[in-house]
Every structure is written in C-alpha cells, then in structure tokens.
Amino acid sequence: MENPVLIFFIFLPFLAAFIIPLLNLFWDQAKTIVLLLVSLVLFLLSAIIVINPPQITMYAPGGWYPVDNIPLGIHLVGDGLSRFMLLIINTLAFFCAIYAIPYIKLFTGQKYFYTLFFLQLAGLNGVVLTGDMFNLFVFMEVAAKASYALVAFGVKKTEIEASFKYQVIGGLASLFMLFGIAMLYWMTSTLNMADISVVLKNNHVDNTSLIRFAQLFLLAGVAIKSAMIPFHAWLPDAHSSAPSPVSAMLSGVVIKVLGVYVILRLFINVFEPCGFMSMVIAVLGGISMTAGVILAIGAWDLKRLLAYHSISQMGYVLMGTGIGMGVIASGENPEVVALTFTGAMFHMINHSVFKGLLFLTAGSIEYSTGNLDLRRMGGLAQYMPLTMIASFAASMAIAGIPPFNGFFSKFTIIVAAIQGGYYFRAALGMLVGIITLASFVKFQRYAFFGKPLTGITLKQTPVLMNVSMIALAVLCLLMSLFIFPEVRAVFLDPAVNILIESTD
Amino acid sequence: MKGMSVIVKKVAQLLSAMIFVFGMYIAIHGHIMPGGGFTGGVLLASSFIVLVLAQGLEYFKLKQQRERTSLVESLSVLLILLLGFSGLFAGSMVFFGNYLPKGQPGELLSAGNIPIYSILIGIKVAATLFTIFLALTIYKEEVST
Predict the structure, then answer these.
(1) Which residue in B has a C-alpha nearest to residue A16's C-alpha?
(2) Count of domains forming chain A
(3) Residue A375, exposed/middle/buried by CB under 10 A (0-12, 13-18, 19+)?
(4) Do B74 and A22 touch (CB under 8 A)?
(5) Partner-chain residue, chosen from B70, B82, B95, that has the shortest CB–CB distance to A21
(6) What was the pLDDT predicted at A455?
(7) How far is residue A309's CA from residue A437's CA, in Å, rounded to a whole number?
(8) pLDDT tens for each residue of A347-370
(9) What string of DSSP letters covers A31-78?
(10) Please, which residues 163-202 of chain A have a Cβ atom closer than 8 Å to chain B?
(11) S-S: A446 plus which of A178, A372, A374, A424, CB 3.0-4.6 Å?
(12) What is the pLDDT of residue A96?
C-alpha cells in the first residue's frame, strides 16, 4: 500500500472548503473550528514530511502507475522542492488562519471567506504537488480564481477595481501559460513533467527555436503571476486592497508558488538551463529588485509600500535563481551552484515569514486606527507594543539586519553572485538592501515613533491576532538557525538538491 | 422579471421536461457515450433556466431558494471528495480508486465508480450554472427596481 500522505494536502482543504457551508447551517461556530483544525493538521503534516521524508515520493491517484516508463495518469510528486514549498504554504496559512478569525469579523459575508481561503490553499498545495503540466495549469487557476474573489472581499470601489485588474491581467497570464503548455504537448506528445524533460534531453525535438518559443510564452505567463517589474501592474493594487490575512497569503505564498516555484520547476527541472533563459530571468530579477524598492520608498500607503517590497524581494530570489542557472549553463564554477540555490530557497522561506508578518501588522494597525496612511499615524508604540515588537522584528528581517533571518539569505545570494563572477549584480543587491533599510526606517518612524496621535480612540487588537504576530516574529529570529549546516541539511538541502540533480 | 405569454409558458413547460430527461440521460451514460457529467449538467441547468425565463422569477419564489442551490453544489462536491476518499479503504487502496465491480464494457452498469462520479458532476454543474444564472438575474432585478 502506498503512503497516501500527499493527497491529504489537496483533499483536506477541498473537504474543508465545501463542508463549511453545510456545517454552518446547523452551528455557527463550526467554520472557525474547521478552519483552525484543518490548517493546524496541514501545518503539522507538512512539518512532518519535511523532517521525516517518506521513502516513495510519487503518488498516483486512482492507481494509474506508469507502464514501461510511459506515464498514464496524473501523478503527485513530493520531492524535496515540493515538500519545502508545502512547508512554506501551510505554515503561513496556519498563522493567517489564526489571525483571520477575529480580523474577518470586520467584513460582511464572513462565511464565504472560509470557503475561499481553503480553495486558495488547495490550489496552492496542488500546484506544488502535481507532476503534470496541464494539472499544474488547473491548480494555478483554482488558486488564482480564489485569489480574485478574496481581493474583492471588502466590496468597496477600490477593492473591486483592484480585483478586476488582477483578473484581466491574471487571465492573460493563464492564456500565455496554456498556450505554452499546448506547444509543449504538441512537440513532446506528453504532459508529464519528468517525461517532457526526458524527451527534451534525448533531443527528440529537432526544432530548438520552437522550444524557445514555448519557453518564452511560459515565462511571460509566470512572470505576470510573480509580478516581475514590466508585468507588475496588478500587484500593488491587489495586495494592498485585500483583507490583511489575504494580503499576507498573496504576498507571502501566492506569488511564490504561482510565480517563482513554477519558474524553478519549469526552467530548471523540465527544460535544461540555458544561458539565454538564465540571462532573461536574472535580468528580470535585477530590474524588479531595483525598481520595486524605488517605487516602494515613495509610497505613503502602508500596504502599498509592503506590496512594492514584495516585488523587490522576489527579485532577489529570481536573481539568485538566474545566477545559479547561468553558472550551470556556462559550466564554470560548479561549486557556486549549490550556494546560489541555497540563497534563493532560503530567501524565499524567509520572505514568506517576514512579509506575511508585515502585512499582518499592517492589518493590526488598520484594525485599531482604521487608517493605513503613514502620514496620519504616529506614536503607536505606546498603544500597541506587541504589534510594534512584531513589526520591528519583521522590518529588521526584511532590511537585512544581522540577527534576523533576512540578513543571512541576502548575504548568501550576494556572496554567491560574487563567487560566480557577477560583481554588478552583487553590488546591486547590496544597494537595494540599503534602500530597503531606508524605507523600513521610514515605516517605523512614521507609524510607531514620532508625534503621538491625539483625540483618537484606538481599538484593542484581539488576542488571537497578537498570538499569530508574535509567533511569526519568533520564527523570524529562529529561522536564522537555517544557516547552520545541520539545520540546513533538514530544511534547505533536499530542495536545493532537486534543483542541482536535474542538471546531471 | 415578468413572465412571457401563455404560449411561451406552455411550450417552455413541455420542453423543460424533455431537456431535463435528456440531461439525465447524457449524465448517466457518461462512461459509454460522448458527453458526460459536464454536458449533462449544462442540460439539467438549462431546463430550469428555460422555465425561469418563461415564467418569471417570482413564480417559483427563487429569491428565497438561491441559498439552496449553493448548498446542493457544496453537497455534490463533498460527495465526490468522499467517494474519492473511500477509495483509500477499498480495492487497490488509492485515492480515487475504482473499486466497484467493472462489469461488461459498453453496458450501463459498468466501469465501477465512474458513473457515480459522472452523475455527481452532473448535479454539481447543474447547481453551479443555475446558481450563477440566479445570482445574475436577482442582481439585475435589484438594480432595476
């Protein structure tokens, strides 16, 4: 009998999503309990399979196993990279779920939030688990459709406009993805990712320019989903107008899974890394990193500032990935490859924690003061000390101040860039780090210090929101431990090995 | 939304029953014929939609019933998931396992679990399309009044 643990990451969120409307008829508290229970179980399961990985990493629903190495059905693949992404998704989803319980009471139509939250979670888990190209597209759509609805959850004018913009641009991205997948299917006659990579490696496809054509379509689709700079127009609106726990999920997980994970999977595992694509990805990453932070420093809306920083920080990850691919393609300095991918993976998990936390603190500020404009805040440190501590930890982490996790991952990427001989990119990384620090000093100064507010009654933030924020702040510090080889071997190395092995 | 003339109402009533039966036929024969759950579900939904278009929204008091179509939708998805989950405990012990007797290919009662999935998908699609239709109609009603 196979170990069915992988299917539960898709089954449980779907079950929760559709059981909540039914249970809610009889018992009002059911939705909260289901939310907490299912997200806790998923969080624990993902932690268990990362720490204690199962022997067999493939699962075939319906029992459709390959015959003579020809894949028949849709397979779920739980290799190192997928397990690592599952940990990121389900950890943040758990803390966002805790946070959302009091927060979502601000909105009408609460019961829809729970269903949509779980649909989004199911889509995200499905994207990282599936081993089939078309199934990848389907799960991307599940996650994206749920995200569109969640962005518009406040049903105010700006929120609906943001959601509409997100839908139009996201729909375009899906079209590009579908076209790229169709081209690939036409060329290779298979949709299984491992099989496509075998067919392409054995040069069964003669026309390399056709492959390049499909690659560019896929890259355009994924770049829109991960909001790289020329494709980023939807992100600041969508991330800043969603409810805060949803913003945290969108920024901490969705752009990583639908964007960066798919880039890693497609352009490193499925296609062989080539110099051209690595250059494109690294340049996209570099532009996003720089332009994102420059756009961020001028923003006065707190969540919009954070949203621009998401673009910038994802730029770091993609630049690291691009450097790694470039080093693989050129064949020089092979010892740097592991370092670049470690940096990229490390920064990805760090970013999910600290950016999730930053959006949650922004939500907490909005909850008590009812406003998000930095110019109309001030002196909040004395009214909401816990939020201040959490936000301070996350700000220092994203700015790259040493005891926090962000420092180590940025440092790894920059060292890897220098060792790979990309001095300009390394210098750019440091420069962007300094501007990031400046913009978060601005955030801290205007929100928590400075002239205190007068004549405004502040709402007390509920306990559950504080619990979630403090737990994530502690994680920000604890994850610095990933820099030690023993801890890294458990969490980061399996994911990095998947990226390196595929090129052998 | 007001109803249409008597002729349209009568024809719609007659037609709707036929569309409904044909939709069930397509959904139930999903595993041995072209079509299947989705196509059957669309037909099922359209049989209701034809009636509502002819009779008007108030005739069936559909504003009060919109919640129920959503519930049918949730329930059918839930049943599909649980049927898939039951595969873990029977037959080849895999999710979505096909453990019911396979029967003779080409007969109505064959292919194990597949017809049940088709029927449930038919219900799900019918409920979803009808819900969308009702949501749009009710929205338009509320805007125009």
Answers:
(1) B78
(2) 1
(3) exposed
(4) yes
(5) B70
(6) 67
(7) 11
(8) 999 999 999 999 999 998 888 888
(9) HHHHHHHHHHHHHHHHHHHHHS--S--EE-GGG---BTTB--S--EE-
(10) none
(11) A374
(12) 92
Range of A451's domain? 273-504
Of residues B25 and A4, which shows the higher confidence score?
Answer: B25
Q: So what's the pLDDT on residue A368?
A: 86
Is there a contact between B93 and A1 if contact means CB atoms under 8 Å apart? Answer: yes
Q: What's the gap in Å between the CA of A12 and the closest CA on chain B?
A: 9
Tens of pLDDT, residue by residue over A272-328, are 888 888 889 989 999 999 999 998 888 888 889 999 999 999 998 999 888 888 888
When the pLDDT of each residue in chain B is averaged and rounded to a whole number, the result is 84
Q: Half-sphere exposure of residue B120, counting CA atoms within 13 Å on the CB side?
A: 16
Q: Name which of A143, A306, A283, A131 is nearest A219 in CA terms.
A: A283
| Residue A135 located in a structural domain | no
ipTM higher than threshold 0.95: no
Measured between beta carbons, the chain A residues lying within 8 angstroms of B88 are 4
DSSP state string for A327-381: HHHH-S-HHHHHHHHHHHHHHHHHHHHHHHHHHHHHHHHHHHHS--BGGG---GG
**Which residue in chain A is spatially nearest to B67 when comparing CA positions?**
A21
Residue A155 — left, alpha, or beta (φ > 0 → left; ψ -120 to 50 → alpha)? left
- Any domain includes A49: no
Mutation for testing the B interface, residue in A2, A18, A114 having most B CBs under 10 Å: A18
Q: Mark which residues 36-65 of A lie under 8 Å from B by CB.
A: 59-63
pLDDT digits (tens, 9 = 90+) for A193-204: 888 888 888 876
A230 touches chain B (CB under 8 A): no
- Please tell me the distance from the alpha carbon of residue B21 to that of residue A348, in angstroms, as a whole number: 54
Residue A458 touches chain B, beta carbons under 8 Å? no
Number of residue pairs across A and B with CB atoms under 8 Å?
A: 49
Model confidence at A40: pLDDT above 90: yes
Cβ–Cβ below 8 Å for A61 and B95: yes
Quick check: A63 and B75 CB within 8 A?
no
pLDDT at position B67 over 80: no
Distance CA A249, CA A91 (A): 11
Indicate the pLDDT class of residue A57, thresholds 50, 70 and 90.
Answer: confident
Distances (CA, A) of A68 to A64, A71, A72, A201, B97: 12, 8, 10, 19, 21
Within a domain: A495: yes
> What is residue B31's predicted lDDT score, i.e. its pLDDT?
83
As a whole number, the mean pLDDT across chain A is 87
Kindly state whether residue A178 falls inside one of the protein's structural domains. Answer: no
